[in-house]
Amino acid sequence: MKMKLRFSTTSPYARKVQIVAIEKGLDAAIEVVPSAPFAADSDVHKDNPLGKVPALVLADGQTLFDSPVICEYLDAQDGNPSFFPAPGPARWIALRRQALGDGIMDAAILRRVEATMRTPEQRSPAWLARQEAAIRRALDALEQEAGELDGQFTIGEVTILCALDYLDLRFSEDRWRDGRPALAAWFERISQRPSAQASRPKE
Ligand SMILES: N[C@@H](CCC(=O)N[C@@H](CS)C(=O)NCC(=O)O)C(=O)O
């Protein structure tokens, strides 16, 4: 029986799972269930009480969430995890980069929700500015370490790739590449990877 993945083509968190599944040769073992978690009639909560994608329903009926948990589970299936290195310096770097990428996505989605689900009167400019600042600082930190991102593809680099592509999808007017040439060049290189090409965000 196939695993079932609650998935949205624009979710950067769900894309992390898709990339790891492709890289590990597990995509054929997963049935993708397109899901719209923000729709009023969404039934995602039937698989994930938090009502969020991604959620992975295993063959025994157990459901895993969120994206860090699902990605680590898929990585472990062949007994040879490469996206989540064993405890040690490489693991802390990978997890820290994942946290930075997830944090960019979290802040970007808060901005998007503020813009799409709240009326102009309800919107808080201070809250929006706070999220924008978090994204800006995280991108600046990534520019500083962009020279060290090449030569590996752990959950850290997967997550950064997904976060940057999400900024292109939703906030292209912010022009995150401006002033960050090393990060932009790394992003162009990593985007050529077949798993990245196969999982490009689609509206
Ligand atoms: N930390 C979670 C975040 C997942 C998440 O926020 N997903 C969004 C879609 S991009 C969602 O389903 N949101 C629905 C909601 O917040 O109600 C993860 O890494 O999987």
List the keywords.
203 residues; Glutaredoxin; Glutathione S-transferase Yfyf (Class Pi), Chain A, domain 2; 2 domains; 4-stranded mixed β-sheet; 7 helices; 7% strand; globular
Account of the 3D structure:
The protein is of the alpha+beta class and 203 residues long. It folds into two domains: 3-76, Glutaredoxin, CATH 3.40.30; 89-194, Glutathione S-transferase Yfyf (Class Pi), Chain A, domain 2. It is 51% helix and 7% strand. The chain is built from seven helices and four strands. It has helices at residues 12-23, 67-76, 89-117, 125-145, 155-171, 181-190, 194-198; strands spanning 3-7, 30-34, 55-57, 63-64. The protein has a four-stranded mixed β-sheet with strand order 2-1-3-4. Strand 1 (3-7), helix 1 and strand 2 form a beta-alpha-beta unit. Glutathione (GSH) binds at residues 11, 13, 37-38, 51-54, 66-67, 102, 109.
Q: How do the helices and strands line up, and which of them pair or pack?
A:
Blueprint (H helix, E strand, L loop, with lengths): L2 E5 L4 H12 L6 E5 L20 E3 L5 E2 L2 H10 L12 H29 L7 H21 L9 H17 L9 H10 L3 H5 L5
Parallel strand pairs: 1-2
Antiparallel strand pairs: 1-3, 3-4
Helix pairs in contact: 1-2, 1-5, 3-4, 3-5, 4-6
The structure holds glutathione (GSH).
Q: Characterize the biggest β-sheet.
A: 4 strands, mixed
Total beta-strand segments: 4
Strand residue content? 5-15%
Assign the CATH class of the largest domain.
Answer: Mainly Alpha
Helix proportion range: 40-55%
CATH architecture of the largest domain: Up-down Bundle
Mean pLDDT: 97
| Overall tally of domains | 2
Q: State the secondary-structure class.
A: alpha+beta
Please count the helical segments: 7
Radius of gyration: 17 Å
What is the N-to-C order of secondary-structure elements (H for helix, E for strand)? Answer: EHEEEHHHHHH
> Are any ligands bound, and if so which?
glutathione
Low-confidence stretches: none
